[in-house]
Write a structure and sequence with these properties.
Blueprint (H helix, E strand, L loop, with lengths): L1 E6 L8 H13 L4 E4 L15 H11 L4 E4 L2 E2 L5 H14 L6 E4 L18 H19 L4 E4 L4 E5 L13 E6 L3 H8 L3 E5 L4 H11 L6 E7 L5 H6 L3 E5 L6 H9 L20
Parallel strand pairs: 1-2, 1-11, 2-3, 4-5, 5-8, 8-9, 9-10, 10-11
Antiparallel strand pairs: 6-7
Helix pairs in contact: 1-2, 1-8, 3-4
Length: 277
């Protein structure tokens, strides 16, 4: 089982330089991954929020071995052509360390769709996400992409260069654990990041139901103060340690410096991880 740091880019963590320094410390402390949230608004307060892609570029330049990525991007907020370029550029910059977490997003916690004039309809979002998830692997091959869908069109375009990773950048699908659509999407890709999981027993049931290849990843979110052994025993291949910025940079730095499976930090404020997607 691998273990990763998982950070919201809020408050002090809105500064890409601060996060890049934390990533370098995480790599030195032998963490396996360093993942960040991707939001443009959160809650009702005028909160400082960092850009996931700029921050991850800084992380890539400050590290050399740790896996990294956005966990997760709300696919309907993106244009597939831009996303194809961004993912390849980050994969090249990191020399093949990118994992792309992808979901639908949620309008409840910041109005990230409705406040920007976009529909918050989840059915529409699902259709858009499925289109983008069909376009990205095709774009990463370097072959001409021909796509005429309900929401996006790409007419005979080659996306070069191709990713550092071959045959493609890994995609983990995030979504409600009990819903059929996220499970279906995940089965077509490389990993499943289920939310609204009550305990390790439920997580084990998800793994049994998914029935993917041995190389398929199952990522579980565990609060920083909780033991992860039950999730390891249930079959999780990754543990994402949720770290809220409210505990402060000194506590975050200490947690990271102590390495994987640290415990004993204060209860974080803010919504639980089950509400993130």
């Amino acid at each position: 089982m691998k273990e990763a740091v998982w950070l919201p880019l809020f408050d002090d963590l809105a500064d890409p330089g601060v996060v890049a320094d934390l990533a370098a410390r995480a790599e030195a402390a032998k963490w396996d991954g360093f993942f960040v949230w991707d939001h443009i608004r959160w809650g009702e307060a005028d909160r400082r929020i960092g850009d996931a892609w700029v921050t991850l570029a800084a992380v890539a330049r400050s590290t050399s071995s740790i896996r990294l990525g956005p966990m997760v991007i709300p696919l309907p907020r993106y244009r597939p052509a831009s996303l194809a370029r961004q993912t390849v550029s980050l994969d090249l910059l990191s020399k093949g360390r990118l994992i792309l977490g992808a979901g639908l997003g949620n309008d409840r916690f910041g109005g990230e769709y409705s406040r920007f004039g976009e529909s918050p309809d989840s059915r529409r979002h699902a259709a858009i996400a499925d289109e983008i998830l069909s376009i990205l692997p095709a774009a990463w091959t370097g072959n001409a992409v021909h796509h005429a869908g309900e929401h996006h069109t790409i007419d005979d375009v080659r996306f070069l260069p191709t990713p550092y990773q071959h045959p493609a950048i890994p995609i983990w699908i995030a979504g409600t654990a009990t819903a059929a659509a996220p499970r279906r999407r995940a089965a077509l890709h490389d990993g499943f990041f289920p939310v609204n999981v009550r305990n390790a027993s439920d997580f084990a049931d998800i793994i049994l139901a998914q029935n993917n290849s041995p190389s398929f990843d199952f990522a579980a979110t565990v609060r920083i103060q909780d033991d992860a052994n039950d999730y390891r025993d249930a079959g999780a291949t990754w543990i994402l340690r949720e770290i809220q910025p409210e505990i402060g940079l000194p506590a975050i730095s200490t947690l990271i410096d102590e390495g994987p499976r640290t415990k004993g930090f204060p209860e974080p404020n803010g919504p639980p991880s089950s509400q993130l997607i």
